[in-house]
From TrEMBL:
Domain of life from the UniProt record: Bacteria
MF-aspect GO terms: ATP binding
InterPro entries: IstB_ATP-bd, P-loop_NTPase
Protein name listed in UniProt: IstB-like ATP-binding domain-containing protein
All residue ranges annotated as the IstB-like ATP-binding domain in the record: 130-270
Annotated organism of origin: Simonsiella muelleri ATCC 29453
A Gene Ontology biological process term: DNA replication
Length: 279
């Protein structure tokens, strides 16, 4: 045992740059202002050993800080994992995982008003009184970001079924169901009409053929009849969107709805340069 500790000491001494520094030349009674008397060692280098109680306190403090750092890190990791799990279960595009209402940052008063409207729509969902949320306007302004954030929020706060889909996704399903006669139209409409919250993105990007368009309208209409909330996202202007959806549906969508216009400039370019990738 003694041999072993001697070995360790001499190893430490060698690593520290010479055994001379660790040779104790004398011991004496020293005084710590906080802890009183202790036996101090004087080394050949002239260095005097500090109060062992102070040393222990300092180490405990450092350990405490370290432990807290780990705890902080772990809870952040846990929150991240929960967020990602949630986003995966919500089935949103991977690029929008982790996008929240909180991390959508307004840069001016108009955007502050947008954020307020989104938060209010979130409250309306919670109280079961939300109709449609129409997010329309310039590209790259965070419309899909906010739609996905609302889906994750609905899922986190209330559970249930939420779904993100582009109109292209819906149209593809219509075409597939026709080609393979797999799902009857009515079932397809019912599938999209039953989600507790649906976000339908890129409205108006594709005009669609008559069947595709009819089904899009039936889905939106069914959801209106069931008083289920729908987030409609479009790059069209308000006039063009109204024209695309038609007067009857547009009027129905006004009930308990929020219409939010995005007129800012695109964040996509600046952000992607900052992130080191491009669309
Ligand atoms: N106000 C904002 N705060 C934070 N990120 C934003 C904001 N606006 C846009 N972004 C980010 O810019 C990118 C493009 O937004 P996106 O939602 O795809 O725009 P849109 O659907 O309106 O075309 C996304 O990465 C999004 O998170
Ligand atoms: Mg988008
Ligand atoms: Zn001390």
């Amino acid at each position: 045992m003694e041999k072993c500790s001697h070995f360790v000491e001499s190893l430490v001494a060698r690593l520290a740059g010479g055994s001379a520094n660790f040779t104790v030349t004398d011991t004496f009674t020293a005084h710590c202002q906080k802890h009183g008397q202790y036996t101090a060692k004087r080394y050949q280098s002239g260095r005097v050993s500090p109060c062992p109680t102070c040393l222990k306190e300092k180490k405990d403090e450092e350990f405490q800080e370290y432990a807290e750092e780990i705890k902080r890190h772990n809870s952040m990791q846990a929150a991240k994992v929960v967020r990602e799990k949630l986003a995966q279960s919500v089935d949103i595009p991977p690029r929008f995982i982790g996008k929240t209402v909180a991390n959508w940052q307004p840069e001016n008063d108009a955007e502050k008003a947008i954020k307020k409207a989104i938060v209010n729509y979130g409250f309306a969902i919670q109280s079961g009184k939300a109709g449609a949320l129409i997010l329309h306007g310039n590209k790259g302004t965070g419309k899909t970001h906010l739609a996905c954030a609302l889906l994750s929020m609905r899922k986190a706060q209330m559970g249930g079924s939420v779904q993100y889909a582009t109109v292209a996704d819906l149209f593809r399903k219509v075409r597939e169901s026709k080609r393979f006669s797999s799902t009857p139209e009515s079932e397809l409409i019912e599938e999209y009409a039953k989600f507790d919250l649906l976000a339908l993105d890129e409205i108006g990007n594709q005009r669609g053929d008559d069947d595709e368009k009819r089904i899009l309208f039936d889905v939106l209409n069914k959801r209106y009849e069931k008083a289920l909330p729908t987030v409609l996202v479009s790059n069209l202007t308000r006039e063009k969107l109204e024209e695309f959806l038609g007067e009857v549906l547009w009027d129905r969508l006004q009930e308990n709805s929020f219409i939010v216009s995005f007129s800012g400039k695109s964040r996509r370019v600046a952000r992607n340069i900052a992130d080191g990738f491009s669309d």
